[in-house]
Design goal:
Length: 276
């Protein structure tokens, strides 16, 4: 079956790697597992032996027909949809539990998928996602799991880690895929345990908008980025001093705790840039 480069199709065919990915999910024998981009079903074939049910989200018409022909509907529900439009909350409600997610993410939409998962972690009815084991380009995995002060730390790092800890598990060479990509791929495990309450964040959307402002220009200091976003120099200086933050620091050196501290100070000042 030919691949479609525009869909970022690089199919994993390394059987040992597939087993390791499924093992990283842990016990899912009583769970519905969401598989993002099942492709030709290499990972799906192993998942069905471990999960109570697999809900496979696939966009490619030809692969949809192949998957539905191979897997019985009582084992695998194949959903013909772009994952960015998928309703994780509804799937969780139907399953009756928080969901496990697994997938070999297309490189060209990895970040949007990660942001989709972050936004879908819970609903008004309660938690939606429990954990995700995801494969992505090694450089993106480095950014997602990066620690403050490291070269790879940035907006994607703090956004993902706001919703729970991320750990890198293992890296695969191009030869593990067909066709082989031009990059290495890394598998991460992301456990959804939102930190908003512990950090004193009562409005995640407003906080994330603040983070985007803080990281707007990587070469600029945090103070300069905030001033460019509309915060006055006196307000920015007072907030930095109150939070105990070096006025010359750049955003990539700050922990989530420090960002939260400064955000609360600025929000407490009733500034227009932080209004809901």
């Amino acid at each position: 079956m030919p691949t479609k480069p525009k869909l970022g199709q690089n199919f994993l065919h390394d059987p040992h790697a597939i087993q390791r990915i499924v093992a990283a999910l842990g016990d899912c024998s009583r769970e519905t597992v969401i598989e993002i981009g099942p492709g030709r079903g290499a990972l799906t074939r192993v998942l069905v032996a471990h999960a109570a049910h697999v809900l496979a989200i696939e966009l490619d018409d030809a692969l949809i027909a192949h998957l539905r022909a191979e897997f019985p509907a009582n084992q695998v529900t194949v959903v013909h949809q772009d994952v960015l439009g998928f309703d994780f909350a509804a799937a969780s409600a139907q399953a009756g539990h928080r969901l496990a997610v697994v997938g070999n993410l297309p490189y060209y939409i990895t970040s949007p998928i990660l942001l989709k998962l972050a936004a879908s972690h819970s609903s008004p009815n309660g938690p939606v996602l429990d954990r995700a084991v995801l494969m992505m380009q090694r450089e993106v995995a480095d950014r997602v799991a990066a620690e403050p002060g490291s070269r790879d730390y940035g907006l994607l790092s703090v956004t993902a880690q706001l919703y729970g800890p991320v750990e890198k598990l293992f890296t695969l060479p191009p030869g593990a895929f067909s066709p082989p990509p031009q990059v290495h791929s890394t598998v991460i495990r992301w456990r959804f345990a939102p930190r908003s309450s512990a950090l004193g964040i009562d409005n995640a959307d407003t906080f994330q908008a603040f983070l985007r402002q803080a990281f707007a220009q990587k070469r600029k200091t945090l103070a300069n980025n905030l001033r460019a976003a509309g915060f006055s120099t006196p307000d920015t200086s007072r907030a930095l001093a109150a939070a105990g933050i070096d006025p010359q620091i750049r955003a990539e050196a700050l922990s989530l705790e420090s960002f939260a501290a400064m955000w609360k100070i600025l929000r407490g000042a009733d500034l227009p840039s932080l209004q809901e």
